[in-house]
Specification:
The structure is a single chain. By secondary structure, this protein is of the alpha+beta class. A hairpin with a 2-residue loop joins β2 and β3. The protein has 2 domains: about 170 residues, no CATH class; about 120 residues, 2-Layer Sandwich (Heat Shock Protein 90), CATH 3.30.565.10. α2 runs antiparallel to α5. About 65% of the residues lie in helices and about 10% in strands. It is rod-shaped and about 130 Å long.
Length: about 400
């Protein structure tokens, strides 16, 4: 059954015609084909020729159903003239069925009306020409069996197909409405998040930047410790940088299409020196070994590498203040290999038990979104973050 459904409609029609020819030939050979006494002496090859012409018309039943019906009327008329046979009417009833099922809506309405006229004409002609009630009864049986049963069946199948198509369209419309509602809800949520970020977090960052600027002014006037001045300057630089990124994020969230164009893209490895300077100002000793490919990195990889490095440095500042951090970034085997190592102040088991590790999860998710991997853990008395990001394709992080 599965093999049959995989065949093309034209192939199925051709196979059906061959099987029909074999079955109808069996009826002729078994002398079970004639409807009346006339025509029993017609040679078999003539009957098979008429049958072949009818079956040839069935090859057009799907693509040109009305033309197949009209062409099939010629060999059917020949069969009626020689003496009507069951095989010929069986094949022609399939043409009637196909003409109602596969034709256009206008032809679908006209064809039954035409056959209604033909049916009445056949009954009237039979009543006029023949004597007795047997020929009329036979005509009614033939009309009902070979004309109106296929018409009724085809209309029933067509009605079910139309209903299924309507239901399919309705389901698609409901899916579209649900998707539009979902997008509207997401847009509203994004706008709410953007408003909250602007009103709360961005406000605090602005206050930090302003207050640190004021503190810098005081420190410059009083000529106090240069190291303290550097720390305050780092606080201001970080707060201004965070405020800029926060405003970029607010702008992205507030956009209706939710897209992120290149102009509003987050930072990449080009800003790594700024990140390193901020870590050094916080008391870390940072060494870098960066060997980036000459070609431009995919933006998603560039951003993910920057964010992973930023998170690793943030963790080092929190859990290993004042320690040495080594950052290594290089291309290996069509991947961007990133390693951040730092010495540990706390024992590894205490470090792994502290906090929910949301930052570590974020690093892993960023790498996985690009088809890469990121792992972090204790190693040789220190803490190491390793990430490998494929350069062959760019994914949306």
């Amino acid at each position: 059954m599965r093999v049959w459904s995989q065949l093309s409609p034209r192939t199925r029609d051709a196979i059906g015609s061959l099987l029909g020819f074999a079955a109808c030939t069996g009826l002729y050979l078994a002398n079970m084909s004639t409807m009346i006494d006339r025509g029993q002496d017609v040679p078999l090859w003539v009957r098979l020729g008429v049958l072949g012409a009818l079956l040839g018309c069935t090859l057009l039943r799907r693509t040109h159903p009305v033309a197949a019906l009209l062409l099939g009327a010629i060999p059917l008329a020949t069969d009626i003239h020689l003496g009507p046979t069951v095989p010929a009417w069986l094949v022609y009833s399939d043409l009637i069925y196909a003409s109602v099922l596969y034709s256009g809506r206008r032809a679908n309405r006209i064809i039954p009306m035409c056959w209604g006229v033909v049916s009445v004409a056949i009954i009237v002609a039979t009543a006029v020409i023949a004597t007795g009630g047997r020929p009329i009864a036979l005509a009614v049986i033939v009309i009902f069996s070979f004309i109106w049963t296929p018409i009724w069946w085809a209309n029933s199948v067509r009605t079910h197909k139309d209903i299924a198509e309507i239901e399919r369209g309705r389901a698609q419309a409901l899916t579209l409405v649900a998707e539009l509602d979902r997008r509207a809800a997401i847009t509203d949520e994004r706008r709410t998040m953007a408003r909250d970020l602007h009103d709360v977090i961005a406000g605090h960052l602005s206050a930090i930047a302003i207050q640190s600027e004021a503190a810098l002014g005081v420190l410059h006037r009083t000529a106090t410790d240069a190291e303290l001045t550097g720390v305050v300057a780092s606080i201001r630089a970080n707060s201004v940088s965070a405020l800029q990124e926060m405003r970029t994020m607010i702008g992205l969230l507030a956009r209706d299409d939710g897209g992120a164009d290149a102009a509003a893209a987050p930072r990449g490895l080009a800003q790594l020196p700024i990140l390193v300077d901020a870590a050094r100002a916080a008391g870390l000793t940072v060494r870098t070994r960066v060997e980036l490919p000459e070609r431009e990195l995919p933006s998603a990889v560039d951003q993910a590498a920057y964010r992973i490095t930023q998170e690793a440095l943030t963790n080092a500042m929190k859990h290993a203040p004042g320690q040495e951090v080594v950052i290594e970034i290089a291309e290996r085997d069509a991947e961007l290999a990133l390693t951040v190592r730092n010495r540990l102040v706390r024992p590894p088991h205490r470090l792994e038990a502290a906090g929910p590790h949301r930052g570590l999860l974020n690093m892993g998710e960023r790498a996985a979104a690009l088809g890469g991997v990121c792992a972090a853990g204790a190693e040789s008395g220190g803490w190491t973050v390793r990430a490998r990001l494929p350069l062959a394709r760019e994914s949306a992080a």
